[in-house]
Amino acid sequence: MTTLRIKDVFKRYPNGAEAVKGVSVDVEDGELVVFVGPSGCGKSTMLRMVAGLESVTEGEIELAGRVVNDLEPAERNIAMVFQNYALYPHMSVRKNLAYGLKNRGTPQAEIDRKVDEAAKLLQIGEFLDRKPSQLSGGQRQRVAMGRAIVRDPAIFLFDEPLSNLDAKLRNQMRLEIKKLQRSLGTAAIYVTHDQVEAMTLADRIVVLNNGLIEQVGKPHEVYSQPASTFVASFIGAPPMNLLDATLSDGRIEIGGQSFAVQQTQKAGPIKLGLRPERLQVASGGEGFRVEVGVLEDLGATRLIHARLGDQDLTIAQDSELPEPSSEALITFRHDDAHFFDASSGRRI
Amino acid sequence: MAIADTDRLPPATSDKAKTKTKPQKPRSNIRLYDHIVLAIGVFIMMGPLVVAFLTSTHDYVTIHREGMQITWGGNFLETYKNVLYQKGGFTGEVTGLLMTQNSLILGIGFAVGKIVVSMLAAYAIVYFRFPFATLSFWIIFTTLLLPLEVRILPSYEVVQQLGMLNSYSGLIIPLIASATGTFFFRQFFKSIPNEMIEAARIDGAGPVQFFWDILVPLSKTMIAAIFIIMFVVGWNQYLWPTLMTTEEGYFTLVRGIRNIMQQMIGADIPEYNEALAMAVLAMLPPALVIMIFQRMFIKGLVEQEK
Ligand SMILES: Nc1ncnc2c1ncn2[C@@H]1O[C@H](COP(=O)(O)OP(=O)(O)OP(=O)(O)O)[C@@H](O)[C@H]1O
Ligand SMILES: [Mg+2]
């Protein structure tokens, strides 16, 4: 079953800005879909339209089988977790959790039960009588999640909920959100510009760029089969190398060097995509020679910034490094090469 | 910079440092200067009040003959009882107590009215997208350029035609529109993050509920601060009550002082002691309000709970 159906949605703000230009996605029951993209690509706008905080200019949003375009946020059966938590500072944690239920006219006994249940689930029981200002960032984050959980929504909406936390806590909370969402079995949309968050959390990733969907797919699909140069450079860190190259007769030529590839359909200028972590420094075999520049040691991996002809290239390596300013031979497996159309950027 | 920093040192460390190292010495002097400056300030501001109070405890003959006094006169109870309970005025109906009550009604009515009106105005301006909201705000704001004194004749005309002369509503209502209050509340509301409003919308709070459940509690300290300022302003109103009320039953303390002094025009020696006692009484409530709410007042002006 489909929880949420977004059909050809278009959003134009009153000032004329076109934030979303025709997006269609479905969110299945219990699925966690991550919207990822650079700043300003329309992720938040998309989410806020689902929440009912922004009107939909064109298209349809269908939640649990009914079109909700004209419903108020409170009538949509959604719950949202904001980046800055947006807790009510003058209310205790308990009141924060209960406020929405109270407004719905839920009986007090049921409110208490739900609040206690959520508090237990999130381990915030001991803070129930504190004010948000007396909590740490991580604890506030939990309260914000609690406020979403007690509503028993059809779908959770997260707008960069972890970006105010420090790196360590972020990793921990990320895992917790995923576990929680799994155990509740509630569908969720999670908006982030952090591709690591997207990769680790998502059942499916929706990559947005400039108000349009670039690609929808499982994390490993998006990583291993990027649909465009945009996705290729956005997903994965360090980003995929994209080199200007020319293809002819099963050979590819870059900066005066050429070698055989398994791509014969198309001749002419293309973009060759190579993931830094899939490149190897070799002592022999077929490959291309690069000029080694700066080296960066990140502990687990080492980055080699090199030049191939007049183009930059990054190689991630966990073994011995070549000397700086030396020459190195770089090889890769044939199925690790991605080919993109030089003008449209789409995958070939 | 350096001065401010040393002032913030906890006493224990600065004491220790003082005895051990030389450069600390000028710092203790700075603290001394601070106190001297403060003491001078207190003397200049409180001196006249103390003299007024002491003088009010003498009888009026002494005051008339010898001027202001700086000793205790011993007539304290008598004078203050007179001021509070003796019926006076032209009709012989008003007591000091009644005037105090009138002043309180004016002060509180004025403050509460201003807060209610300006909060609602700011709420409308900030949260409702009605046409020309910004323009309306600036129009309200420019009324700061038209204080009561400037528009007193038309104001009087309106109140008189509405038949509100000699009534509490006539005293209060024409004064409660407040550009200052609206401005303060507008700035405060604007500083409340948008997400909070959106969270409330998702939680199903309508406009009225949002106002009561979220905005009013968040504005608590702000309300307290504005209440204090407006209470004092209302309490000290002189010109407007003088025009609005001719019946002595509506006289406020501030006017009462003048009334006593007016006897000078007659043959009697004015009852300086009572006038001064009344002045002291008139000063007390605002001073008390400020002393009691001082902490909240400062909190409201400098920090926001968000
Ligand atoms: N209220 C608004 N009025 C006009 N334009 C807006 C409004 N909100 C957003 N926009 C524009 O719409 C586009 C998409 O904004 P949106 O907030 O959805 O981006 P985002 O993907 O969430 O970015 P970020 O990662 O920075 O949060 C931006 O170009 C932005 O300038
Ligand atoms: Mg955003």
TrEMBL record, chain A:
Q: Which GO terms describe its molecular function?
A: ABC-type transporter activity; ATP binding; ATP hydrolysis activity
Is Transport tagged as a keyword?
yes
The lineage's top-level taxon is Bacteria
InterPro entries per the UniProt record, alphabetical: AAA+_ATPase, ABC_transporter-like_ATP-bd, ABC_transporter-like_CS, ABC_transpr_MalK-like, ABC_transpr_MalK/UgpC-like, Mo/tungstate-bd_C_term_dom, NA-bd_OB-fold, OB_MalK-like
Could you state one GO biological process linked to this protein? Answer: carbohydrate transport
> Which keywords are on file for this protein?
ATP-binding, Cell inner membrane, Cell membrane, Membrane, Nucleotide-binding, Sugar transport, Translocase, Transport
A Gene Ontology term for the protein's cellular component: ATP-binding cassette (ABC) transporter complex, substrate-binding subunit-containing
The ABC transporter domain, residue ranges? 4-235
Q: Which Pfam families match?
A: ABC_tran, OB_MalK
In the UniProt record, does the keyword rRNA processing occur? no
Family of this protein? Belongs to the ABC transporter superfamily.
Q: What is this protein called?
A: sn-glycerol-3-phosphate ABC transporter ATP-binding protein UgpC
Q: Which organism is it from?
A: Kangsaoukella pontilimi
TrEMBL record, chain B:
ABC transmembrane type-1 domain ranges (all copies): 100-293
Q: What is one Gene Ontology biological process annotated in the Swiss-Prot or TrEMBL record? A: transmembrane transport
Pfam families, alphabetized:
BPD_transp_1
Q: Where, by residue number, does the polypeptide cross the bilayer?
A: 32-54, 104-123, 130-148, 168-189, 210-235, 275-293
Cellular location(s): Cell inner membrane; Cell membrane
Task: Tell me the leader sequence span.
Answer: none
Keyword Transport set for record: yes
CDD domains to which the protein is assigned, alphabetical: TM_PBP2
Among InterPro entries, the record links this protein to: MetI-like, MetI-like_sf
Protein's membrane topology: Multi-pass membrane protein
Q: Where is this region: Disordered?
A: 1-26
Report the GO terms under cellular component. Answer: plasma membrane
Instruction: Write out the similarity annotation.
Output: Belongs to the binding-protein-dependent transport system permease family.
Function summary: Part of the ABC transporter complex UgpBAEC involved in sn-glycerol-3-phosphate (G3P) import. Probably responsible for the translocation of the substrate across the membrane.
Self-association and partners: The complex is composed of two ATP-binding proteins (UgpC), two transmembrane proteins (UgpA and UgpE) and a solute-binding protein (UgpB).
The protein's name = sn-glycerol-3-phosphate transport system permease protein UgpE
Highest classification ranks of the organism: Bacteria, Pseudomonadati, Pseudomonadota, Alphaproteobacteria, Rhodobacterales
